Amino acid sequence: MKLGLQLGYWSAQPPQGVGELVAAAEDAGFDAIFTAEAWGSDAFTPLAWWGRETSRVRLGTSIVQMSGRTPASIAMHALTLDHLTGGRVVLGMGVSGPQVVEGWYGVPFSKPLARTREVVSIIRQVLAREAPVTNAGPHHPLPYDGPGAVGLGKPLKPIVHPLRADLPIWLGAEGPKNVAQTAEIADGWIPIFYTPKSAGMYQPWLDEGFARPGARRTRADFEIAATCHLQIVENAEQKQQVIDGMKPFVSLYMGGMGAKEQNFHHQVFTRMGYGELADEVQELYLSGEKDKATALIPDELVDDMHIIGTPGEVRERVAQWEETGVTTLLLSCRSAAEVRQIAELLA
């Protein structure tokens, strides 16, 4: 199992010390650096900025929100960065949620699976550069012939010859239909809240996708990149402090990320067996009682979602994650020293 450095997306200000983190990950043998986006910083710019100082690690997005750009625009970003990095890009994408898609990007959220299929198809056409790119689907018609069209759209091939037609496309997916489609059309999967205890829930969904006619990959060459926080501690007291510090993030995603009527993260926790808890946390969080919502998060849930423990405990837990099929562990790290410590422990 490979290690990746998860830089995530920015908070109120650009993070400090990222250059040192990236350099340490490259030197310590990490396989990849990943960035993300929400409704502030974008994923591609930080990846290019900090990735320019690297020469070996893969550079990935986890995830690019598909509604924020047209499929051709996403393909242009990916093929350009792939050339500049000598073929080290992993394009991770996802649909996001209705609050962001309709509230921030101002486009419809409906039919997320069909939209995903069209986006992936168009990007693969661009990267293959075998013929002018066309798409008959209703979500991203190329050439565009809908309302306001002047009728002069022309199918085009990219001017730049892509470095790799098989540039890896990974998809963020949470529900059973989305996970199955990911196994069918993508090269890898970026789950959220994937844990050793919940891993068995996903296996039939993945198998359904692999079994579909024309599936791109098999389980043998399909990548699963799971994100977690890994922290080495000296004793149980320190571990409890870390667990308590992670609870606000869990309550945010369980109760406050997304609309009450359609919160995909809430649905994941429900499928994991925390339905009643998720409902209560959401009710409190959305009513402004965030501290009370956070206080309800059980220690065992945080411990399952993340890897926190003494060196021996961490090695044992990492092995458990690998046994479930995870091929890359995307880790959030706080310092270059922590990056080196983790790499040395798991070497």
Describe the structure.
The protein starts with a strand and ends with a helix. It has 347 residues and is of the alpha/beta class. It has helices spanning 18-28, 44-51, 71-84, 98-103, 112-128, 176-185, 199-210, 236-256, 264-286, 290-295, 299-305, 311-323, 336-346, and strands at residues 2-8, 32-35, 58-61, 64-65, 89-94, 169-172, 188-190, 223-232, 307-309, 328-332. The longest helix has 23 residues, at 264-286. The radius of gyration is 20 Å and the shape is globular. It folds into two domains: 2-230 and 310-346, Luciferase-like domain (TIM Barrel, Alpha-Beta Barrel), CATH 3.20.20.30; 234-308, no CATH class. β1, α1 (18-28) and β2 form a beta-alpha-beta unit. It has 13 helices and ten strands.
Multimerization state:
single chain
Distance between the termini: 11 Å
Strand order of the largest sheet: 1-2-3-5-6-7-8-10
What class, by secondary structure content?
Answer: alpha/beta
Instruction: State the CATH class of the largest domain.
Output: Alpha Beta
- Shape, please? globular
Second rung of CATH, namely the architecture of the largest domain: Alpha-Beta Barrel
The helix/strand series, from N terminus to C terminus, equals EHEHEEHEHHEHEHEHHHHEHEH
Question: What is the radius of gyration computed over CA atoms, rounded to a whole number of angstroms?
Answer: 20 Å
Helix count equals 13
Estimated helix fraction: 40-55%
Q: Can you lay out the helices and strands and say which pair or pack?
A:
Elements: E1 2-8, H1 18-28, E2 32-35, H2 44-51, E3 58-61, E4 64-65, H3 71-84, E5 89-94, H4 98-103, H5 112-128, E6 169-172, H6 176-185, E7 188-190, H7 199-210, E8 223-232, H8 236-256, H9 264-286, H10 290-295, H11 299-305, E9 307-309, H12 311-323, E10 328-332, H13 336-346
Parallel strand pairs: 1-2, 1-10, 2-3, 3-5, 4-5, 5-6, 6-7, 7-8, 8-9, 8-10
Helix pairs in contact: 1-13, 3-5, 6-7, 8-9
